[in-house]
Amino acid sequence: MSESGGAVISELGALTSAAANAQEAGGRAPNARDAVRALRPSQIREVANAGFGVPDVLPFWFGESDQVTPQFIRDAASRALADGATFYTHNLGIAALREALADYVGKLHGATRPAEIAVTSAGVNALMLATQLVAGAGDRVVAVTPLWPNLVEIPKILGATVETVTLTYGPDGWTLDLERLLAALTPGTRMLMINSPNNPTGWVMTREQQQAVLDRCRQLGIWLVADEVYERLYYGDDAAVAPSFLDLATRDERVIAVNSFSKAWLMTGWRLGWIVAPERLMEDLGKLVEYNTSCAPSFVQMAGVAAVKDGGQFTQELVAGLRASRDYLVAALQRIPGIDVRAPAGSMYLFFRLPGADRSLELCKALVRESALGLAPGSAFGPEGEGFVRWCYACDTARLDAGVARLRAFMEAHPVS
């Protein structure tokens, strides 16, 4: 064979090999893990994205107030920055904040030590860290729904499976079938996730229900992760805080309570939260913080110290205002034919039924497009939420009036038989 013929054959072989490699690579497209690809996207964000650019849109879709963070908290952050608080801190938080939080939690729920507190970069980060601590691939997790989607999806990121127990909607609003939940807590369950006061429904778990669930978890060795971010936004009685598992459990039990600065002190954009957990978890929790975020920003933590130490009066006034807004919006919506709404005992939302909400995502997109009204679709909180929409009422009554007027006009223009 001539040298030129051999070169041609060699070149053809190289081309064939390249084609084969390309075909093989095509079968290995640059995708994320299957567990991540299977996560449901946020329908709240989907509706909000549809609202960007819509003139004069009224955004009631996110869970935050229309007020800025209180001045005394912003001033504390400014002072910390001026003093040079821009360096790394301890993984579990600066001592001043852990001590302030231990005192705060102790006054609400019984003796708590700084060694049982970890500071996190937001409440949702706390939820991820808590789940990483105790659940993993193949574990079974139970969650009470409808529920903010992050809580249901976080265990799935780690390879766990999630079984849901659904609240029931009726004349008394949203209620829990306790026996159904207890039956779901089987010996093979690794973790239970409960959010009370609940986002989106406003449901609040009673002390008696908490005791029964805690007893069951103790019996079977189930980890209980309690999302208590809305505990101060409670209207059920004269108490300053909703019933908490921390009231019933000792600090060395398999109970992890997650909280945030976002709601009680209007610090949504600051991304600061905390965990109350057994001290024996803290060394391992510190490792997870290191490998996730290293630490929360120092000057933000100093703002947190001010919130916890000096924010009592502010939070009381905030809750009183939210209660008034809740009652005002419930009365206004009840005057619209076809709407079924009940006043919840906690949180900052109304989760209510209205005609057309059996396809709630499409309805909420239409509301944005045609009426510049931003509500969150019930389906964003799981299939159990279909038929409902969520309205965050943390705003002044003039804005609520405008939103109600737009909803009424939309429903009159789109009658459902």
From TrEMBL:
InterPro entries noted in UniProt: Aminotransferase_I/II_large, AspAT/PAT-like, NHTrfase_class1_PyrdxlP-BS, PyrdxlP-dep_Trfase, PyrdxlP-dep_Trfase_major, PyrdxlP-dep_Trfase_small
SUPFAM superfamilies linked to this entry: PLP-dependent transferases
Example GO BP: amino acid metabolic process
Catalytic class of the enzyme: transferase
Sequence ranges assigned to domain Aminotransferase class I/classII large in this UniProt record: 65-407
Pfam families: Aminotran_1_2
E.C. numbers: 2.6.1.-
Keywords in alphabetical order: Aminotransferase, Pyridoxal phosphate, Transferase
GO MF term set: pyridoxal phosphate binding; transaminase activity
Cofactor(s) demanded: pyridoxal 5'-phosphate
Membership in a protein family: Belongs to the class-I pyridoxal-phosphate-dependent aminotransferase family.
NCBIfam families on file: PRK06108.1
Protein name: Aminotransferase
